[in-house]
Amino acid sequence: MGNPVLQTFPLGFPWQTQDPFLFCVYHLDHYPKGNENMGPDPKLLEGRNLGNDFTLKDGWRMYHGHTIPGFPYHPHRGFETITIVNKGFCDHSDSLGAAARFGQGDVQWMTAGRGVQHSEMFPLLNTDSENTLELFQIWLNLPKKDKFVDSHFKMLWHEDIPIVKEESATIKVIAGNYRGTQANDPAPDSWAANPKNEVAIWNIHVDAESEYVLPKAKTPVTRTLYFYEGSEIFIGDKKINPNFGIALDASLEAEITIGGKNAHFLLLQGKPIDEPIAKYGPFVMNTEEEIQQAMKEYRTTQFGGWPWPYADNVHDKESGRFAQYPDGTLIKKP
Predict the structure, then answer these.
(1) Which of 29, 75, 88, 188 could crosslink 60 through cysteines, CB 3.0-4.6 Å?
(2) pLDDT digits (tens, 9 = 90+) for 155-195
């Protein structure tokens, strides 16, 4: 059996992806204790470039937030966002009227489609201890025929996400099928909704000083394994250090030998859409003309406007985990 490693590359900000994925970013911020407004003590904000604070200082960043870290309202069109919050919490609000507070392993799947605005803020709920945030956000493309589908908001609660436990590994199956264990349904118009596209999103944790075999795919797909925490690993005779991505030949199993620390991976795979891509900030279409049209429509319609009181909308501190759907349905979780 040949070595499945096609390429390795350092993990930057964002991470390098392959079609059908457009973007993947990993946020790990060790936020301090929160104040009564769910943000850091104002004294800790001195010297930061508020509104555009992407420099890791004291272990955390404010991103586009001014008083609470996160991303105030902004538009998207032509793709999907998949947000995995392993630690901490994310407060979501959008122009559909949907809202949520999710975290501790929850996943939000949002189809931007023809256009939506949303905000993603990171409230610091703990006032007596640190507020660590660990979050992945993945952009999954939509094919030309689906770029103008209705926008859609979906929650995948961590209690419902399949977990596969093997001898030395634990695999969280967010999308796709792992050795016969099928993930929950994605958003209905997603590229991942068709099993023939073999889209997979797996968060894989493997014990130190053990071996793990990543199964091969059934069809021709791109496959990228992101090694974001641990010590060295070996795939065949190739040594790979943490904070590297690995492009794999998905037609081959990958036999991985783990070093002296537990290893943590994110896997993204899927059938390429194989269409032209035109990108400008939060818009992903097929041509530059479509990008110009998206910008014009956003200026004119604001993709439905913003129904919330603040651009950086944050929910009540005592809200707990919840989802409010556009039709008014309210789901609360422990």
Answers:
(1) 29
(2) 999 999 999 999 999 999 999 999 999 999 999 999 999 99
Distances, alpha carbon 14 to alpha carbons 23, 226, 307, 311, in Å:
7, 12, 30, 24
Q: Which CATH class is domain 21-160+280-306?
A: mainly beta
What residue spans in the chain does CATH classification 2.60.120.10 cover?
1-14+161-275, 21-160+280-306
- Domain 1-14+161-275 matching CATH 1.10.290.10: the answer reads no
Look at the pTM and tell me if it is higher than 0.70: yes
For residue 280, the cross-strand partners are: 283
Residues 116 and 78: beta-carbon distance below 8 Å = no
The Cβ-side half-sphere exposure at 192, using a 13 Å CA radius, reads 28
The structure tokens listed for 35 are: 């104040």
Name 97's Cβ contacts closer than 8 Å, sequence gap at least 6.
307, 324, 326
- Output the pLDDT for position 1: 62
